[in-house]
């Protein structure tokens, strides 16, 4: 009798876990991985050590933040090429701090198509001081002649909801908002003078996304 009850309990537990999993929002993506080789792995580990002061055996993160960006490149293909190579080309101001190319986990085209460039928990260089805990989302376009679209807003909302259902997210910020984390325990950058000015993706885009994810109670700045 006890064995039957134990078996029934296990079946019910598995059914409960399956039901919880089925309630998680799914994310429709096109898998288009950027180059991940021994060079990118080594440079990622080096970046974690030199820039963040974090020693790891594998370049992984536990996502606690989502950072939204625009690519400042007008096309999907041009944006993808900018992230694809492991070693950074041009952008001398960034090269002096690391040879690791910039990248993100997700890239969103004008029509809202989501491309997965890296696994959620793989380290990517996209936001000074915060990469070690942040998933990056790049949106093709800019704030000028190639504005971000409503379809991109909706895609970013889906990404945030998907990540929040799987990881201990606490923060949702635009790249232009990252300065607020300086001089806090969350900021991990070994050079206090390493900072770049950002305007992306802008207040209007962030407000449009935040409006639809308010129930998640994600913060835009650290508690003082």
UniProtKB/TrEMBL annotation:
The UniProt record lists the N-acetylmuramoyl-L-alanine amidase domain at 52-186
E.C. no: 3.5.1.28
Q: Which InterPro entries match?
A: Amidase/PGRP_sf, Amidase_domain, NAMLAA_amidase_2
Pfam family, any one: Amidase_2
Top EC class for this record: hydrolase
Q: Which UniProt keywords apply?
A: Cell wall biogenesis/degradation, Hydrolase
Query: Has the keyword Cell wall biogenesis/degradation been applied to this entry?
Result: yes
Q: Which reaction does it catalyse?
A: Hydrolyzes the link between N-acetylmuramoyl residues and L-amino acid residues in certain cell-wall glycopeptides
One GO process term, biological-process aspect: peptidoglycan catabolic process
MF terms in GO: N-acetylmuramoyl-L-alanine amidase activity
- Protein known as: N-acetylmuramoyl-L-alanine amidase
Q: Which organism is it from?
A: Siphonobacter aquaeclarae
């Amino acid at each position: 009798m006890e064995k039957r009850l134990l078996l029934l309990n296990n079946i019910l537990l598995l059914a409960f876990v399956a039901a919880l999993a089925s309630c998680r929002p799914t994310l429709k993506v096109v898998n288009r991985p950027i180059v991940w080789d021994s060079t990118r792995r080594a440079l990622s580990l080096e970046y974690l050590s030199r820039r963040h002061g974090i020693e790891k055996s594998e370049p992984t993160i536990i996502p606690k933040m989502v950072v939204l960006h625009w690519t400042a490149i007008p096309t999907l293909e041009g944006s993808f090429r900018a992230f694809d190579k492991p070693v950074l080309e041009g952008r001398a101001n960034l090269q002096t701090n690391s040879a690791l190319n910039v990248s993100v986990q997700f890239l969103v085209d004008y029509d809202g198509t989501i491309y997965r460039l890296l696994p959620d928990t793989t380290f990517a260089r996209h936001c000074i001081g915060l990469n070690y805990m942040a998933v990056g989302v790049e949106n093709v376009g800019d704030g000028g002649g190639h504005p971000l679209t409503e379809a991109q807003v909706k895609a970013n909302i889906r990404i945030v909801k998907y990540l929040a259902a799987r990881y201990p997210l606490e923060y949702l910020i635009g790249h232009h908002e990252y300065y607020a984390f300086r001089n806090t325990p969350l900021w991990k950058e070994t050079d206090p003078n390493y900072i770049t000015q950002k305007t992306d993706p802008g207040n209007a885009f962030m407000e449009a996304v935040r409006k639809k994810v308010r129930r998640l109670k994600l913060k835009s700045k650290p508690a003082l």
